[in-house]
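Support request, please re-run this one:
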Amino acid sequence: MDVSKDVLYSLQLAGKNIVIEDSVYIQLLQGARCSLETTNLTTPGTGTCTSFIIDKQLQDDEKLSDVHEKKALFGLASFLLECAKQNVTLDEIRAVLEESNFSPKRIQHFLDVYHQHKDSIRRNLARISSFEKAQIVDVNWRLDYNIKNSQSDKVNQLSYLVDLHTLVRFFFYYI
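Re-run finished. Output below.
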């Protein structure tokens, strides 16, 4: 599985027990999952996703002020999203997490969260990418041949001007 260097670095931070404690790791993983499941965030007060974000913002001693926690949250959310997007198997995820020096307990917790919420994350991804591309309805084009211009005597250059007229249709699919 291909993962960017930034995501791998952030995952390595999330995997270090010295940098991120187990209780904070669980909260970060739940926050990453919640940020990808937008349906839980749209209805305030329903479920643990909204309460996680409010709790992390309001409690002074629990804020995500630590740079390492922010990078770990980025890595976990990005990796969770990429795994769901590519429909990756649990063995492939386990290999990447082991390579990032995750403890077996953290690997199992990540795999459980991924397995439970993969379908809803994939539905949200499908909802995002269900826009149709613009349809080309007309083209205006012109071919110019420049023999010379004001700066030099001889140019002898072709230039094309293409103007595409498109029709954009947006369809919103609710799954």
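Residues 4 and 79 are 9 Å apart (CA to CA). The beta strands are 135-146, 157-167.
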